[in-house]
Specification:
Blueprint (H helix, E strand, L loop, with lengths): L9 H9 L3 H17 L4 H14 L5 H11 L7 H8 L3 H10 L5 H9 L3 H8 L6 H8 L4 H8 L8 H11 L3 H8 L6 H13 L1 H7 L4 H21 L4 H13 L5 H8 L4 H12 L3 H8 L5 H8 L8 H16 L6 H15 L8 H11 L6
Helix pairs in contact: 2-3, 2-4, 4-6, 6-8, 7-9, 8-10, 9-11, 10-12, 11-13, 13-15, 14-15, 15-17, 16-18, 17-18, 17-23, 18-19, 19-20, 21-22
Length: 373
């Protein structure tokens, strides 16, 4: 129930008549706004209150309009014309409404975004909920502060295409990519783009530390591929993994070493998707060929790709380990799978004298030339 001291009273009306100062009008504006927000008015009382509000939004005193905006920012039964008038006001008046009012429509917000006021754009970008339409308009503002706010706003419903546009425009800005990286639910393809952006920034740093360009590129590729494998492990569903594989192929990042890295950690789902995309065959068909217990299925699938033949034996060993662990009823734990892979590699690849699986990957990279005929 509304506190009586906060409600408009006959004494307030008398005070307004005898002392029509900015302070008195601001106080009355706040009281009217609180009554509107309390939802306890009758239809007749609400009509009177709305009439008072329409008069107050035209008040010459900024203090009065600001008091009104702050008090009405969460009111969901506010007349649209009153909310819009306050939202289109000067920044000191409009920001509370822009940041919170549920009455403002997407069209209202987009029109205000296009007016070019940076602070208003930031306020809209930080609203409790932001639709993709509004997010697109924010991305197009060329206002890094507003985009950073949007990127970090978990209440913003941003589509994959809008995320892509955001990264294409602002991906070189650390504050934007950092805000994106902290979001809880990024599409996997967007996360991979971020990994690529961040790892690419390492090149200058590495070259400053006496590494030549080739060494720097090798370290960057390795760090990016490790992060990508970690990303795939957290992917929600197979559709996302296929989309990621297609994106990696499109940008020449679906490398043999990345595929090997994934299968060596037991990520058969990514392995299936990657070979499906590289061979340009449906995922189900690729999976059947991969899990063929004979020797021809995987070989025929790999022959449709540009993967060097040297990788085929390693793929087979990884798949054998995967099948064994499934038959043994062992959970698909990455570290356990990796440990068994190391053991199996050491027994089957006698020419590689190392207990480090990373060395095997590098060795295969160096060995991998063109495919054998």
């Amino acid at each position: 129930m509304t506190d009586k001291r906060s409600r408009l009273s006959p004494e307030d009306i008398q005070k307004l008549l005898t002392d029509p100062s900015d302070g008195v009008r601001a106080d009355i504006a706040a009281k009217v706004a609180r009554e509107v927000g309390a939802k306890s008015l009758s239809d007749e009382e609400r009509e009177i209150a709305n009439a008072i509000l329409r008069g107050l939004v035209k008040d010459a005193a900024e203090r009065v309009r600001k008091s009104l905006s702050e008090s009405l920012r969460y009111a969901d039964e506010l007349p649209h014309d009153v909310a819009l008038a306050l939202a289109q006001d000067i920044e000191t008046v409009s920001l509370p409404m822009l940041g919170s009012s549920p009455v403002l429509s997407d069209s209202d917000l987009i029109e205000i975004i296009s007016s070019g006021s940076p602070q208003k754009q930031i306020a809209i970008a930080g609203r409790p909920t932001v639709t993709d339409r509004v997010a697109q308009a924010i991305v197009e503002t060329e206002n890094p502060a507003a985009v950073t706010t949007l990127a970090g706003n978990e209440g913003a419903e941003i589509s994959e295409s809008t995320f892509t546009s955001l990264i294409d425009r602002y991906g070189t800005m650390n504050e934007v990519t950092e805000a994106l990286a902290h979001r809880e639910n990024l599409p996997i393809t967007i996360s991979e783009k971020l990994i690529t952006l961040v790892s690419g920034r390492l090149r200058g740093y590495l070259e400053q530390h006496s590494l030549n360009e080739g060494q720097a590129d090798q370290l960057i590729q390795e760090s990016r591929e490790r992060a990508t494998v970690d990303l795939v492990e957290k992917a929600a569903n197979t559709h996302n993994v296929v989309a990621l594989s297609k994106q990696l192929k499109e940008h020449d990042r679906l490398t043999p070493s990345l595929i090997l890295r994934a299968i060596f950690t037991g990520d058969v789902r990514f392995f299936e998707a990657a070979l499906s995309v590289l061979a340009d065959v449906p995922l189900k068909k690729a999976a059947i060929l991969i899990h063929d217990t004979g020797t021809l299925g995987l070989k025929s699938l790999c022959e449709r790709t540009d993967l060097p033949d040297v990788y085929l034996p390693a793929f087979r060993v990884a798949l054998d380990v995967y099948r064994e662990m499934q038959e043994d009823g062992i959970d698909e734990d990455r570290e356990r799978f990796r440990a068994r892979m190391v053991e199996r590699i050491l027994t089957q690849f006698h020419d590689i004298d190392t207990d480090d699986i990373e060395y095997l990957i590098k060795s295969l990279q160096r060995e991998g030339g063109s495919k054998a005929a």
